[in-house]
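User: quick one, fold this
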Amino acid sequence: MRVRAPGSSANLGPGFDAMGIAVDRYYEVSDEPLEGFEPLPADDFVWSVTAPYVEAPAQLWFRTDIPVGQGLGSSAAAVVAVAHLGFRLQGADAATARQSAFSVANE
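Assistant:
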């Protein structure tokens, strides 16, 4: 699954922090199953307790063309994209994940 969030700016002269725009730069995050994963031994206590609740492990891959430190919201885009992917991986539909990710970013 791949999720992306646009960069943004609220530094718009007289509209500073009152107006905002999205820019055509994105922060992307995706998940892929880990290769070479070996489960813990069946007699491992922690594994035996958690195994019923653990889904296949995943590795997150990040890519961005939003320049860091340039006022284009790279940190906010990262928070929204990762939160959205997290909610999707927990089973939320796209609309719910989007709204939940925005709520997390506003905290």
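User: anything notable?
Assistant: Strands lie at 2-9, 21-33, 58-64.
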